[in-house]
Amino acid sequence: MTRTVESYEQAVEFLFNRVNFERLSGMQYSADDFKLDRMRDLLRRLGDPHESIPAVHIAGTKGKGSTAAYTAAILTAAGFRVGLFTSPHISAFEERMSVAGCIPAPDELVELVRHVAPVVAELDKDPGHMSPTYFEIATALAWIYFRQQGAAIAVLETGMGGRLDATNLCRPAACVITTISRDHTRQLGSRVEQIAREKAGIVKPGVPVVSGVTDGEARAVIAETCRRHNAPLFELGRDFHCRYRPATIGGQTTVEGTVDVTAPHRHWEGLRLPLVGEHQARNLALSLMAVEALAEQGWQIPAEAAAAGLATLRWPGRIEVVQRDPTVIVDTAHNWEAVAALLRTLDESFSARRRLLVFAATRDKDVAGMLRQLLPRFDTVIVTCFQNNPRQIPVDRLAETVRGLTDRMFHTVPDAASAWKLACRLATTDDLICVTGSFFLAAEVRELIAGSVPAARTSGVSATSP
Question: What distance in Å separates the CA atoms of residue 367 and residue 10, rounded to the nearest whole number?
Answer without folding.
Answer: 35
